[in-house]
Amino acid sequence: MRDRFHSLRKVESNDQGTTIPAMQPGATCLRLAAAVIGQSSREKPADSVLRDVLRSARGLSAADAGQVSKAVFAYYRWLKWLDPRINPQARIVEALRLAAEYARSPGSFADDAMVERAVPGWIAEHLEISPAWVRSLQTQPRLWLRSRPAQADQLAAELKDCVPVAPPALRDALEYRGADDLFRSAPFRAGQFEIQDLHSQAVSVICQPRKGEKWWDACAGEGGKTLHLSDLMENSGLILASDRAKWRLDKLRKRAARAKVFNYRVADWTGGERLPAKTLFDGVLVDAPCSGVGTWQRNPHARWTSRPEDILELARLQKQLLAFASRAVKPGGKLVYAVCTLTRDETIEVADSFERDVPGFSRWAFVNPLTGREEPQGWVMLRTEDTGGNGMFIAAWRAAL
After folding, report:
1. Which of 15, 87, 88, 157 could covalently link to 34 via disulfide, CB atoms 3.0 to 4.6 Å apart?
2. DSSP calls for 272-324
3. Are residues 238 and 370 in the same domain?
4. 101 and 172: one domain?
5. Can 207 be counted among the known catalytic residues?
């Protein structure tokens, strides 16, 4: 959810008598943000609680809803800078002040402090922490759109406040810098674009699906990559979209209907040995469940609810999914593995384990759509600090003929 903060309010006092600085959201927005934070937990992620709270708030304007969103996300980005002894609303105001100061003068924050406070200490055991990475986590996420094929210029002209993405392979991608609620826009209702992270778009482009082929999107979720694969295949051939959650597949159907995508069918798959179809596919995409460390810029609450044991458990699941799904790749076909995380356990080690345990596949040196260069090692790590998308790992193989 996008977050905006642009109001100047009079000085107010909270219920504990602490004076709140003038640069702040209004009292209602602060109260709602504090309610979201108070209800959020590992079991109830902040972004989900935020949606529920905003949905139930009567008479809240779109601008105020944006302020609540910004306040909640700022709180979790700057959590380790905040004094736990002061009341929640005062902590929110301080987090917003820190966010504004960082946007204005990032150099005033020392690298050591950023590395120490922006992420939990245990993550250093699972990936290399760099100042550039943690600094990128403290910035506002960029809003990426994917237009229908060859419609980016027309869409940008209609929506305004759009910036095209330079790489030709991602010519349908746009960055939106406006403040409108895009879900209410006429182009969105007409199926002219999807809101989709830039690096997520790169995954489907790397797959290089061709018109008339058969593909299996094994962990399709709500269908972002299924819809992109369909556009790249010119709505021809067949895409099998599977997931273990029926409600996600229901959302996929609704999105596909809006986008007028017809070359797909859905199937339940729990990730077990029994596959959802006997078909052999030209390509299989395993966009596996992961720890989501690559989304910590966009979802700062997850930094403080994720656990080291989650990473190890998910790595075991990813290896299983990849091994089982590989059985559906036809000779000479492609297998693509993607996760929005950067941990060694879920990326390089999963790829290496697959190659040790599953014969008949060789690394595929695909072209990185963000750089136009071939990745001879057959994998790539896309980083937030480099191009502004979610952190993403992608590896690819071809099945032996």
Report:
1. 88
2. SSS-S-S--EEEEEEE-----GGGTTT-THHHHH--HHHHHHHHHHHHHHHHH
3. yes
4. no
5. no
Asked whether residue 295 is assigned to any structural domain, the reply reads: yes
What lies within 8 Å, CB to CB, of 316 at 6+ separation is none
The answer to whether 294 and 344 are in contact (CB under 8 A) is no
Q: How far is CA 183 from CA 83, 191, 194, 347, in A?
A: 37, 11, 9, 33
User: Cα 37–42–48 angle (5° rounding)?
Assistant: 60
Distance CA 88, CA 99 (A): 17
Nearest to 347 by CA among 293, 270, 273: 293
Question: Residue 62's pLDDT is what?
Answer: 85
Question: Alpha-carbon distance 317 to 320, whole Å?
Answer: 5
User: Residue 148 belongs to a domain with what CATH number?
Assistant: 3.30.70.1170
For 130-155, write each residue's pLDDT tens digit: 999 999 999 999 999 999 999 999 99
Q: What are phi and psi of 85, to 5 degrees?
A: -80, -20
Give the residue from 84, 108, 132 where a domain finishes.
108
Q: Torsion angle, CA of 233/237/240/241, rounded to 10 degrees?
A: 30
The model's pLDDT over 215-225, given as tens digits with 9 standing for 90+, comes to 999 999 999 99
What mean pLDDT is reported for the chain?
93
Higher-confidence residue of 371 and 2: namely 371
pLDDT given at position 58: 87
Give me the numbers of helices (H) and strands (E) for the chain, helices first please. 15, 14
Are 93 and 233 in a shared domain?
Answer: no
Q: pLDDT for 274-307, tens place per residue?
A: 999 999 999 999 999 999 999 999 999 999 999 9
CB atoms within 10 A of CB 19: 11
Task: State the residue range of the domain holding 220.
Answer: 205-399
In a domain, 342, yes or no: yes
Selecting among 162, 207, 290, 340, the annotated active-site residue is 340
Confirm whether 117 is domain-assigned: no
The answer, yes or no, to whether residue 6 has pLDDT greater than 50, is no
Angle separating helix axes 348-357 and 308-325, nearest 10 degrees = 40
- Residue 212 phi/psi, 5-degree rounding, is 85, -5
- Same domain, yes or no: 216 and 364: yes
List strands edge to edge, sheet with 173-176.
Answer: 162-164, 173-176, 143-147, 193-195
